[in-house]
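Field reference: sequence -> structure
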Amino acid sequence: MTAPPHDAPGRYVEVRDTRLRVDERGPADAPPLLYIHGGPGQGCFDFMAWQGDRLAKDLRVIGVDQRGALFSGPLPNDEAITEDGLVDDFEALREALGIERWTILGHSFGARPALRYATRHPSAVSSAIFDCPPWDHSYGLPAMLELTVPMLEELGQTEAADRARAMIAARPTPNADVWRQRFEIVNALGDRRNALYLKEPGRYGDPPYPSESLPDEMQARSARHSQTVTASDGFAESLLPLLAEVRQPALLIRGSTDPAASWPEVDRFRADVPHGRVEIFEDSGHFPQLEEPERYAEVVRDFVR
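Structure field:
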């Protein structure tokens, strides 16, 4: 095991023919918590900057850059990533770290492989936290686009606003091409893009995400990770049917203005997960971990304990 560059705390762990960068904090004998990042491709850098030391007061926090993302080993040109493949990586990492069972915390896209993991490996997952989960893009995609339309019109981006309206009306299956179009529409917001994800974007600096200051090489790795994940068949699949298979205690966290986790998905969680609990963060959008950091850490620590 070797150390990554000086600006990426942690070490490398070899699993399934790749190197994963692991940022581990907290007492070795504390309850273990695996953080599964979103994006796809965001990496764990931001979460560990915001929450790593807070949660490490009581927990063994394990942040990991997924296969090909940020500081983990780059993807070969012909390698594809699937959500099930990410689950295999997490399970191999658990075995490499010698952990019997752990709590998993999946944010945004990361809540999708987290749900797959909880249901595929119930004996390895003691409990699960789903933070702003987009389990069915047919709900979240049009909801996000509806939020962008007035913002685009205010900026004079009428062509992008028209494209958003057309996509909302068509309700297409969210394949790789649809996701690329969504990305282009949202990026037409420019600096206003953060207003989609943060309830009060001006409070957190410019840029609000520490990972945005990382080298271009790291950003390119994450972009490649995102492209191959969104092109995989499983990315478009609705995971809502899996909720009825969750047997562990489970917590759903949602910011009140989150554009990704729709209210119908929250209601489905409430109805189908027998040991489920929902926490709404009223002063947050898509990143309660940043926007309400102290309450977030308290809720997560209490749930895991």
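Note: The two ends are 30 Å apart (CA to CA).
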